Amino acid sequence: MVFSNKPLQFIVAVLVACLPLFSSANTATDSVHAKAEVKTESKVLNIKEKEAEDRKEYIQHHLLDTHDFHLFSYVDDNKEEHHIGFPLPVILWDEGLHLFSSSQFHHGEKAAESKGKFYKLHHEKIYRVDSAEGEIQLNNENHHPTNVKPLDLSITKNVFVMLLVSVLIFLLFRSLANSYAKNNGVAKGIGRFFEPIIIYVRDEIAIPNIGEKHYKKYMSHLLTVFFFIWFLNIFGLSPLGINVTGNIAITACLAIITYIITTLTANKNYWGHIFWMPGVPVPMKLILAPIELLGTIIKPFSLMIRLYANIVAGHIVLGSLIGLMFLFKSWFGSTLSFGLSFAISLIEVLVALLQAYIFTMLTALYFGSAVEEHHHEEEAHH
Amino acid sequence: MEIPKIIGAGLVVIGVGMGIGRIGGSAMDAIARQPEATGKIQTAMLIAAALIEGIGFAALFAV
Q1: How does the UniProt record describe the way this protein sits in the membrane (chain B) (predicted)?
Q2: Which of A309, A310, A358 sits opposite B46 (nearest CB)?
């Protein structure tokens, strides 16, 4: 075999050049391990374990819904921790309505008092405690709190962002609709960007899947779902740290709406295909009926899981890559972390659009199956 | 019981990867044969890929 020498030389040169980097990055820990006694060594390990736990906790915390809008925190010269953000209203139903600001929780450190009752945060969930100094009692078996959990109707971060996006979408598309009236049917400003997307949803998603005859009554839902998911996904990539479509409750609601609309607008052919599949022998009809019935629930279920899992997976990957910086603790780690997370962020921008598209597309497909007018019987006679 | 679960999820993910890979490869072939049908092929490819992807995520959540 003949190798060209040039690339080989280059690789060797790069490896030799990088060698001091790796060795210098490792010497610090090596010398610590070599010099340290058994006691300090276990201490070092403990610190490492704690840091790994911290990173894990940070990522998990980012995925959770919170009761305050937390932007960032920093430690000042006096080693005091400062949190920058703003509180959101807490609405509880616990033998009466409780309404107070989430700033009373002091980021989970203190219990909040309302109408003689005390509440405390545990992993961003609100539990009732006995007094201002009361602690949350954990179950010994599974470490779940045993305290009373009041009905929580708070405007949390996710709810706040959803309201924000709803208002944004409403104003944006209202102004687009108005600009048609003003400019003799020509879009203006930001509408020039959104008009082709709306046309795309109509011509490439709605009409091919639902059909010319019925597509109009579903357009409003398809457009709303598309832009709602897309905007929320993009918001989730912003440094504000919002993870709305990565919350399974929200994707479940979107999927349930799709299921309800499909079920309520379905024609008799749709139900015929579920309970009495045409064109197959009678024993097969009996076997197919429960499977098809289950299929109607599996379809929205897969919609829910797909959107949720894609967004959560993206956020976990990005969080882990940012965590690399604290793992390596050298310029090498930071550079690697920046490069990789930048690349993944770009992919996530694509995924944000793709997931909105797929959700809309499959929703349209299910609507299409609900209103399809079938021709199987005529074909069977040929 | 943790290790069999992880291995099982890994196997499912390998299967999902192969499945999506085949869909992507076949779509590439189809586009090369009929470049004028690119839009339709892409749509069908994305739907099929999304359906398989769902199984992969279900496996990951079972771990």
Answers
A1: Multi-pass membrane protein
A2: A358
Q: What is the ipTM of this complex?
A: 0.75
> Are A115 and A144 members of one domain?
yes
C-beta atoms of B50 and A358 within 8 A: yes
> Is residue A75 in some structural domain?
yes
- Write down the residue that tokens 């299967």 correspond to: B15
> Chain B contacts of A365, Cβ < 8 Å?
47
Residues A144 and A189 in one domain: no
H/E segment holding residue A252: helix A248-265
- Per the structure, the complete domain to which residue A138 belongs is given by 68-152
What's the pTM? 0.79
**pLDDT of B8-50, one tens digit each?**
889 999 999 999 999 999 999 999 999 999 988 988 888 888 8
Let me know if residue A47 belongs to a domain: no
CATH superfamily of B2-62: F1F0 ATP synthase subunit C (1.20.20.10)
The helices-and-strands tally (H runs, E runs) of chain A is: 11, 8
User: What 8-state DSSP symbol labels residue A244?
Assistant: S
Residues of A in contact with B54 (CB under 8 A): 302, 305-306
Q: Mention every residue, 6+ apart, whose C-beta is less than 8 A from residue B52.
A: B16, B19, B20, B23
